[in-house]
Amino acid sequence: MDTADRLIESTRELLWERGYVGTSPKAILQRAGAGQGSMYHHFSGKSDLALAAVRRTVEQMRMTADALLSAPGTALERITGYLRRERDVLRGCPVGRLTMDPDIIASPELRAPLDELFDWLRRRLAEVVAEGQSRGEFNAALDPAATAATIAATLQGGYVLARAADSVRPFEQAVTGVLALLASANH
Amino acid sequence: MDTADRLIESTRELLWERGYVGTSPKAILQRAGAGQGSMYHHFSGKSDLALAAVRRTVEQMRMTADALLSAPGTALERITGYLRRERDVLRGCPVGRLTMDPDIIASPELRAPLDELFDWLRRRLAEVVAEGQSRGEFNAALDPAATAATIAATLQGGYVLARAADSVRPFEQAVTGVLALLASANH
DNA sequence: GTCTATAATAAGATAGAC
DNA sequence: GTCTATCTTATTATAGAC
């Protein structure tokens, strides 16, 4: 892993732990074991480095989600697999947490990757819901787009509740709850 | 409004807009029109002032939510009223956003009010869900606690999706989706 | 490419006048 | 109670040596 890569990886970790506002170039450099010169040689500054880090994180999240949602099985099984996949719940979502960062939201360039990821996720979930409806798994009256937004929101909100409680319990309850609602709507 | 009050109100606004890490004492003082001396006379420092601000915000949120969830009407009507109440969605939840703040989560004292609010909210929602079940509005097989967690998570996650998209649309879809799931599970 | 030195500005808190 | 210095450390970036 070269220096630019180490800088990006350190930034990804720190953005996840402390967000954009809470992450200083100094902290990034210390974690990467690099000096100021390296960072300003490879990137124009903090925001440029953050952009590279965010893009990499978003790309990874998308691959993981797509693999789970495209796996074999019924629609409900695939949604369950996605919602119940192994997560470090109390660390929160590395992309979702950035939506609370004022400097990320104020920058169209930094916000764009988040927008694209969640837009893609909602579309993909809507496809899976629609497949479930055509197989008779879910109530045909449900709006796939709205249901997909609910599933994605349950996940993101589950992280919020879990971090407030310092416990994975509320996250697991929220996931259990939405899966039960989906399953009970199968007519 | 005296100086201590103005400091608390300025802090509440800034915590909502920029979070704890992103809010400096200087910014608070400028917004409140006060000097350093005032702040350190009334509060021991940034975290003490933030604690007062968070407590006030939490108290207000709880009053608002309780009024809506205790209003007349069916369980579904009350949950709908709570989820669809007028909100400045793109500003996010003033309490939920703090769960992404590393310094808030690292401090048991600052995290406690968040924990208490969301714990209370889930319990209150669970009561309303249980009432709905006893009236035949919702499927009696649903777990009230899990369903309540899903409703609260949909709200918090809706903010995340909306801010990523810079649009209230995903929030509204998530709310519509969870209400449709609740209504379709009425057997 | 990477390093250290330097610099201007801000964060967070203290001291002491009034 | 409130104000204006003052202080220490961090932030973000630039300069120039190697």
UniProtKB/TrEMBL annotation, chains A, B:
UniProt keyword list: DNA-binding, Transcription, Transcription regulation
Pfam families: TetR_C_13, TetR_N
Ranges where the HTH tetR-type domain occurs: 1-61
Alphabetized InterPro entries for the sequence: Homeodomain-like_sf (IPR009057), HTH_TetR (IPR001647), Tet_transcr_reg_TetR-rel_C_sf (IPR036271), TetR_C (IPR011075)
PROSITE patterns in the cross-refs: HTH_TETR_2 (PS50977)
DNA-binding positions: 24-43
Keyword Transcription regulation among UniProt keywords: yes
Record bears the keyword Transcription regulation: yes
The protein's name: TetR/AcrR family transcriptional regulator
Organism name: Streptantibioticus ferralitis
Organismal lineage: Bacteria, Bacillati, Actinomycetota, Actinomycetes, Kitasatosporales
